[in-house]
Each structure stands twice: as structure tokens, then as C-alpha cells.
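User: Can you recover a sequence for this backbone? Please restate the input before giving your answer.

Assistant: Of course. Working from this structure:
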């Protein structure tokens, strides 16, 4: 499992651990909802909505601190912009994001 790097969140929150925990909680709640919505839009071939959701996911994915995952999100976004189906690529992305969220939740418990 890829390990989340909290450096970007630490920088953003200026080391305020409570604010950092709040942001992490927001990510943990919002990203799964966005992934579910994205799946619906993939199934209906709604490329415009897919692009919007992938754009909305950008900061959350970047805050996970896994550079290759951010690149993968960007490539999916580029495909939707050209109306290229992303279903086969999306499965791997979703799995990586879910694993990263699990690691993020574990790291959140260690923040004091």
C-alpha cells in the first residue's frame, strides 16, 4: 500500500493539528461520495460531469501526497476532456484512492 505523505497538509495548516484533522475528516467523507458520483457519470458516458468531478477531486488527491496518484487523476481528467472513456483506467485509480484513504485514516489517529 502506498503511504500518504501529510507534508502538504502540514504546510497548509501551518502545523495546526486540529485544523489538519478537520481537513482530513472532510477528505475522508467527501472523496468516497465523489468517487461514487463519478462512477454514475462514467456509466452514463457523461464526460462533462466526469471532468468536473475529477477537477473537484484535484486538491484532495494532491493533499494525499502521492505524486503518481495526482498524475493518474490528471490523465483521467485529460481523457474526459477529449470524451475518451475512462472506465478501464478508473478502476485502478479508485482502488489506489481507497487504499490511500485507508492509510490517511490510520495516520489521522496518530496526529496529536
Amino acid at each position: 500500500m502506498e503511504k500518504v505523505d501529510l507534508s502538504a497538509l502540514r504546510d497548509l495548516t501551518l502545523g495546526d493539528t486540529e485544523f489538519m484533522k478537520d481537513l482530513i475528516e472532510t477528505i475522508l467523507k467527501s472523496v468516497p461520495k465523489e468517487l461514487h458520483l463519478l462512477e454514475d457519470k462514467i456509466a452514463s458516458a457523461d464526460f462533462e460531469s466526469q471532468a468536473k468531478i475529477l477537477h473537484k477531486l484535484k486538491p484532495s488527491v494532491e493533499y494525499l501526497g502521492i505524486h503518481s496518484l495526482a498524475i493518474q487523476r490528471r490523465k483521467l481528467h485529460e481523457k474526459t476532456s477529449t470524451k475518451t472513456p475512462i472506465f478501464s483506467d478508473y478502476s485502478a485509480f479508485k482502488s489506489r484512492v481507497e487504499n490511500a484513504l485507508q492509510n490517511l485514516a490510520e495516520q489521522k489517529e496518530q496526529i496529536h
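That completes the design. The mean pLDDT is 96.
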